[in-house]
Amino acid sequence: MGGGSAIRRVKRNFLQGKPVSTGKKEVCAKTQGTVIVFGEYGVHKSGKGEYELLRKGVTIGIFSEAQIKEYEVLFALSHGVILEVSKGGIKEIITPEKATLLGLIAADGSNMFRREQRLRGSYRTEYSTRFYSDDKELANLFSMLSEEIYGITPHHYNRKKDNLITSVIYNKGIFYDLTDLNIKGGPYEFHVPRDHLNNDGKKAFVKGFFSGDGNVSIAGDKITIRFYSSYKEGLEELRLVLIDLGFHPHEILEYVQPTGIVYCFSVPREEHVKFINEIGSYKPRHVRIFEEYLRKSGYEVEKRDDGS
Amino acid sequence: MIEKKGKCGLNCEDCPYFGRLCTGCVIESCLVDHCIRGTSYTGITHPTGLCVLRPYCPIGGKVRPPPTPSPYMRKKSMKKIDFPSFIPEIDLFDQKSWLWEEGVQTPIVSVPLWQLITNKSKLSQALDKGLHDYLGFGGKILLSTIMPDELIDRLKKNDYFELINDLKPDATMIPDNYTYTDMPLYQSWSQTIKLVTFANDFLDLGVSLIGMIKGANLQQVYWSFTKEIEAGYVSFAMPIRELFEEERLDEFLPYIIQTIKERRNKDFELVLYGIGQRLKGYRDISYSNLSWFLRAKRGEYYKDGLFYDLRDPSIRFEECYCDACKGIMPQDIIDLWFENKERALKILAIHNFLDLGRKWKR
Lengths: 308, 362
What we know:
By secondary structure, chain A is α+β, with helices and mostly antiparallel strands.
């Protein structure tokens, strides 16, 4: 459409447009450098270590940092997104930290706006992103991720009767960031942004979701690992993600409960150790059960980089 | 009054590119000026070694592309297309937005050209059959040329002519351009002249034309649409999403409407493109957007030209008697969403379309 401010345009495209102090200038820096080509995309690296993203020879983005790998170049954008350039084109990939946050919200959160009528026909709009949990550790995790990704600390509200903690971010930008990812689509829906997740992101998303809406039940020495939701389509998407990660989850089953229909699927018994080691959970109760299960089964507990 | 020396380093009184068309740099937000003074912006002027504005910068060291000369405008007698108060845009990739297939009456729809040119197989089918047969729609089809910047530069005059002659819409906008309020005026003036050149070229087409109202400042907007008026244009489209989001629409729109009224003696029509809600204080203008459908997909419900989440307590339990809802309330749509999402979405989308069309009646 090409109107308004160019800064807003690059914010929309590559989450850029931030001001940087570069000092008064009388001459401009010269550019020389090498070009790395991926199909119709090229990455030009200047002698000063800056990067230009080209498509068919035309500049579409400039960046001060990049990670160059054999088959791809990665540019860190803001709000937990990485731009991946490869032979397949360009793709926005969500970082594992953001994927975890999205998983938590998809399971036990909401992303909504409300209108409040004011005098003389005007109105006020409240944008909120919420996470509900009775686990203080999960509420703290949500806060930590929100601060890391968006630089915003959620408000916390404790409900005394059942110790439910509601963590709320009141921010229009975050509301629209999550809306664009379609994490919470129509009423009470959730979706998995599969196209924007690499393997690490998929594991992180599933872990975040499982920490909210997952269940581990114990029967003697055996455990059952299940995912629950009232929204079947989202659960099907989650099941596909597990298949992408090499799991073979059981089919989705339907249960009629007094509050409505609930859907669930379980992870096969023979893949429990793989699930615990590769995905796991942040929920303290799950972590205790998993550790006990591995100990009884004669496996050593693997410690991951995130401390779980 | 013309500024003596522009921030691009040239003498504005004797500008070799635009003559007296550009009165000189008056924009405080010019990104080139900011960078020279010490503040660069990531993705545009930072990293500084790869700045994309070098051709327009007095210290950039790159030669600027030559501007398009301003055309001599021809004139053609044109009739109004008769815009209704709301022109729904459709999604060519999602047939659920093709309202007429659900029996909904609409005299006109807007079809986005960019969707066709980014999908070879759909383009090929549409070119073979023409848009009316391809869509199975008997009403008027308005071809929207509004598209992302990277597509704008791809198409030349002959490309547009071939496309329009084969697609056979009833009306077409003249091609879109990009004019950013914080980019050097050289770029936006070049784009504005290009817009007017297209407006002149398109007079050769045998299809109803819609002028485009765009510009990085009032001067560019005024110059381009007065050129279009001189050429005989009576129907106009103005993309306003970015200006609306930046809360700058009131800087432009009242002046534009007043000026067109004076120049055209009130004989004109204007469609605002790209926002999904009614603007207060503006009458006798039409709106066009895809919001009626996009918001329905997200479970958002229109009431009086403004959208709400279906669960919003202020509307959740209010009955609606439009032809889509027939007495149900948003809570009923939520319940239906779980039983039969497709049906719920249809009702919500048609409700949204009817609300946007009804509430903005002239």
